[in-house]
Amino acid sequence: QVQLVESGGGLVQPGGSLRLSCAASGIIFSYYTMGWYRQAPGKQRELVARIISGGGTEYAESMKGRLTISRDNAKNTVGLQMNSLKPEDTAVYYCNAYRRLFGRDQDYWGQGTQVTVSS
Q1: What angle do CA 58, 99, 62 make, to 5 degrees?
Q2: At CA 18, angle to CA 107 and CA 93, rounded to 5?
């Protein structure tokens, strides 16, 4: 059974920082691209950042320069450091594990962790 468990969300003031973590089990972690997505009320879920097994990264333009995504293939964890947070970063943040195998998508999601940026 695949599980992705996020932690680290919470309330932070504008300009503050948070570090999200996701612990994965039930998958061969190193085979998957790991990502963070977010969904704000009334909006579609959107990519925040993702990292391939070898360490290559991709970031959302709206947050580029304020994020660092990292992974530890030995510990099956992926982290997201977020700095200079803005009220518009308020959303539920989801951990994602993805790979394509024999033409089929294998796509897993965590339950999400709330990030609220407010004074």
Answers
A1: 20
A2: 25
